[in-house]
Structure prediction request, 324 residues.
Amino acid sequence: MKSTRAYAHTNIALIKYWGKLPGHLNLPATGSLSLTLENFGTQTTLSFIEAAQDIFVLNNQEQTGEPLLRVQRFLDIVRALGKSDRRCLVDSRNDVPTSSGLASSASGFAALSLAANQHYALNLNPVDLSQLARVGSGSAARSIFGGFVYMHPGTPVDKTGGYAEALATDPALDIRLIVVQCANTCKEISSRAGMLHTSNTSPYYPTWLATHAKDLEEATRAAMQGDFKTLGELTEHSTLKMHACMLAAKPGFWYFEPLTIAVMNKVKALRNDGVNCYFTMDAGPHVKVLCKAQHAEDIAKSFKKIKGIVRIDIAKPGPGAKLQ
Prediction:
């Protein structure tokens, strides 16, 4: 039985994307700047099967309902590109909790895209592969690449854009991202549902769109020039703006837990003591802390004093998606 295996790493957006353009192409309303992480990812194996529909197995459990439909819809697009009607067994294994705000969908659909590109002989270039991954998950477009990644926003007029590319940064920008897991449960509101509700009801959403490009431009410049302080300040600013939009939605909603706030407060305290570190959060309760490599171990130890923390990992910048 022919099979193809790929592995992709998760990524965390430093300058966030939150919100989509209308339509079925899953185009981001804003660009983003992210960091692919070495520690976490998804391994996906595709095998052709003689069956009426695709089968999706995640972490040894066969999936039904929306998770299965999401993969099947994605593979329908792949089959159309490859002029094939072959069905697949999709066997995926996450090294990160699923649907908890640690970007499992990013690594999952990036790995699936790379494997499908090979399995169905699509021969896509990296930009086209990034756009394919985006259809499955907006952030998956970035996990095709390693290190710092720049994601272009979608363009509302001709419905293009929405692809990522690797960003060359100053080698002196030796950073780590400390991932502080503040819960071990799945989130109640998916990122996709949260984005739609925010864009439809939050009075702050138009301001989020209007001010985002400047943040992205300045943060990208800072990363390229090795300006850690500016990059960190903009990272923290972007995540607070994003979550402010959610809080102001009608009704408001939030992903953070009491432990989330405790870690954020600890980051501020460390900074007041002269340790430059900055927090970011995605659509989940976990906190990621951007810091210089030489401070990472000491900062991570300080979080261990907070009761209830599930796990702490120090992540280096990671590579792009690869076939195995």
Summary: The chain has nine helices and 14 strands. The chain has two domains: 3-169, 175-315.
